[in-house]
Amino acid sequence: MHAVATAYLGNGKRVLLGLLFSEYLVLYLAVLYFFALLPFTPGLASWENLGNILSNLLPMLVVAIGQTFVLITGGIDLSVTAIIALASVVGASVMSDAQGLLAGQPGAAPLGMLAMLGVGWILGCLNGASVTRLKMPPFMVTLTTMMFFSGFAIWLTKSQNITGLPATFTVIGKSTGLALGVTAALGLAAHLCLSRSLLGRWLYAVGHNPKAAEISGVPVGRVILLAYLISGTSAAVASILYTGRLETGSPVLGQRILLDVIGATVIGGTSLYGGKGKVMWTVFGVFFIVLIDNSLNLLNLSYFSIMIVKGHVILLAALIDSLRRKISQVP
What we know:
This protein has helices spanning 2-20, 25-37, 47-72, 80-95, 108-132, 138-157, 167-174, 176-196, 198-208, 210-215, 220-246, 258-268, 279-298, 303-329. By secondary structure, the chain is mainly α.
């Protein structure tokens, strides 16, 4: 009898460990959460609400994909919300019909988007160069960048939104199909980069052990710089989607999503310690965070209550990440 009980306990432990290390753990939790709240949340499964979930998921996923690259190297990028806001006002300042530099010109929309991508590229380069050339901690670099450029975006516009954006630009954010196409293309490119390219292998090597990677011939500084460039450019693409959907260049755009972006990436399974992460995991994490946000809003909970719930979920994800790391290190 004792042997049978021990066998059951052993099987149960193996099942729990299997779930803990499963690539689909967050997806399982998201599906379980959805069906658990379904009886108590009117409209959760309606087509209109599912469309809202998708439209909210897409731009956040774009930012989180860039964050995944940085976290894999063992760094972090806190400046993504500042990039979103600054890119929004810079792009709007170029193409606005009311006050833009190219107001009414045929090339206003494409040049405005290029300006937005340029903002992401420049700030990503600034972050990466500060981390690699100046040997500054990623947390302090990107925190400072976030504070300075968030304030700079507000100073540029005197806290005023920029309206009158051309329809050729706003259609990108307002059309779920176009936004889905942009996000899917970026996600596929990121997946192929991480799983099939030399850069992907280098990113994981740097995250596991930068000193060993450098001895093995990996250009560590260049790899880290590229990770921050990808993150900054991804934030700029997300800014295009957010700005197009709102039809407004806003100096505070994306201000509240930093916790969601980092939390979703970690919830999905990308390690805060570096060396581990996948685009598909980030998709699961973003879906879970957006689903929680959507369902709690449908329940008419306050913003602060929603933040408390999401904070607990993100803390649990960080604890699971730490537990996975400790278990995997046991000989």
